[in-house]
Amino acid sequence: MFKVATLYKFVPLDDLVALQKKLQSICKALTGTLLIASEGINGTIAGLPDLLDDAIAQIEAIPSFGDLWYQYSKANHKPFRLLKVRIKKEIIAMHQPEVPSMLRRGHCVLASDWNNRMDQSAVVIDVRNDYEHRLGSFEGALNPKTTYFSQFPAFVEQNLTPYKDQPIAMFCTGGIRCEKASAYMLSSGFKEVYQLSGGILQYLAHTQEALSRWKGECFVFDERISLGHGLKKGSSLLCYGCRMPLTTEDLDENYQSGIRCKFCLKDK
């Protein structure tokens, strides 16, 4: 059994090359991907439980990462093949001319309060991409139909202006995209923005399925493909051709023979 940690923190960082080498040393017995930039750290790493716990403790001991956010889950098989620690311009790419200040972000909402927050909001937004939303989402959530997170600002400008003075709730997989999306929206004049603390992963880990408003499965960026309630591995698969996540309803004879899925065929 392997243990998996999804983690992030927005914090000013410098000397990224030295930090990269330190993280490579700390995580040498693990696999996964860590991204570092001048704005912080983001990633998912996995390994045997004792080795992962030790690595997280060492990362938290780095002064900048004292209150690092992370969520644990499990995998029956190694979810990554290699360890990658990469230096980027942004830990979650928005590609805006001016990076929004991370000092003002949306109000964090605990998983236990999320159902009420959705009911009290004028609109609930799934900040993830369209292929993720298709596997599962919260009932009634708005799908921006983005292919990349960098398209989210355009969606805001084109669709959300009527909600500038109304309460808006948003969610994503682990919380990091909402952090940046809410910062962007507040800097653009939105008044009341809320975000699911720890994202869908936190909700699925701590919400009883009988009380859950989540429908479907949550896409994750590793070889497990998707997770369900209790962060148990889901039933979704990944197309060998186009790498599109697939539900059981998406499967056809072509995919089952390992050739192509309906999304590949659509592009022909």
Question: Layout of SSEs?
Answer:
Blueprint: E1 2-10, H1 16-26, E2 31-37, E3 40-47, H2 49-61, E4 69-75, E5 83-87, E6 107-109, H3 114-119, E7 123-126, H4 130-135, E8 136-138, H5 152-159, E9 167-171, H6 176-187, E10 192-196, H7 199-206, E11 214-216, E12 218-219, E13 226-227, E14 237-238, E15 245-246, H8 253-256, H9 262-267
Parallel strand pairs: 2-5, 6-10, 7-9, 9-10
Antiparallel strand pairs: 1-3, 1-4, 2-3, 8-11, 12-13, 14-15
Tell me, briefly, the overall form: globular
| Average pLDDT metric | 92
List the uncertain runs.
none
SS-based class: alpha/beta
For the sheet with most strands, the description reads:
5 strands, mixed
Rg from C-alpha positions?
19 Å
The portion of residues forming beta strands comes to 25-35%
Number of helices: 9
Distance between the termini: 40 Å
What's the β-strand tally? 15
Percent range of helical residues: 25-40%
Give me the side-by-side strand order of the main sheet. Answer: 4-1-3-2-5
SSE series: EHEEHEEEHEHEHEHEHEEEEEHH
What does this structure look like?
- Strands 4-1-3-2-5 form a five-stranded mixed sheet. A four-stranded parallel sheet has the order 6-10-9-7. Strands 8-11 form a two-stranded antiparallel sheet.
- It has helices spanning about 15-25, 50-60, 115-120, 130-135, 150-160, 175-185, 200-205, 255, 260-265; strands spanning about 1-10, 30-35, 40-45, 70-75, 85, 105-110, 125, 135-140, 165-170, 190-195, 215, 220, 225, 235-240, 245.
- The model has no long low-confidence stretch (mean pLDDT about 90).
- The protein is α/β, with parallel strands linked by helices and about 270 residues long.
- The protein is about 30% helix and about 25% strand.
- Strand 9 (about 165-170), helix 6 (about 175-185) and strand 10 form a beta-alpha-beta unit.
- The protein has nine helices and 15 strands.
